[in-house]
Amino acid sequence: MLTVTNAEGVQLQAKLFRGFGDPARLNILQALRTGPMTVTEIVTATCMSQSNTSNHLRCLRECGLVAAEQQGKFALYRLSDDRVGDLLALGESLLADVARGVYECTRYNLPQDVRPGLK
């Protein structure tokens, strides 16, 4: 088990959370919480284009958050680990308690080099 206690571990954890931080990827992950889906089903569930969905699925597969299994001529995508779904559920639970602060937060919307005192 990886323990995040040093700068390198923190950077790796931040990289993991980038997979959850993009709205399109998060939309796909949320859709896959209901169970395995084909690209066409994910496109329908997320209202994203097929090419955009495929690009984000590739990213999610490469970082290990999504797995795919060939079923005839289709690939069936699923969350790679039950803990991915657990983390999404935990995020929803936390958001229910801190939604106002997150909504009003302006710091996350600023480009990195514009944030006062943060470089």
UniProtKB/TrEMBL annotation:
The record ties this protein, via CDD domains, to:
HTH_ARSR
Whether Membrane counts among this entry's keywords is no
SUPFAM superfamilies according to UniProt: Winged helix' DNA-binding domain
Q: Which InterPro entries match?
A: ArsR-like_HTH, HTH_ArsR_DNA-bd_dom, HTH_MetalResp_TranReg, WH-like_DNA-bd_sf, WH_DNA-bd_sf
Query: Which terms in the Gene Ontology molecular function aspect does this entry carry?
Result: DNA binding; DNA-binding transcription factor activity
Record SMART domains: HTH_ARSR (SM00418)
- The answer to whether the entry has keyword Cell cycle is no
Q: Domain HTH arsR-type, which positions? A: 5-99
Which UniProt keyword terms apply here?
DNA-binding, Transcription, Transcription regulation
Question: Which NCBIfam families did the record assign?
Answer: HTH_metalloreg (NF033788)
Under PANTHER family, the record lists: TRANSCRIPTIONAL REGULATOR, TRANSCRIPTIONAL REGULATOR, ARSR FAMILY
What name does this protein carry? HTH arsR-type domain-containing protein
Q: Which organism is it from?
A: bioreactor metagenome
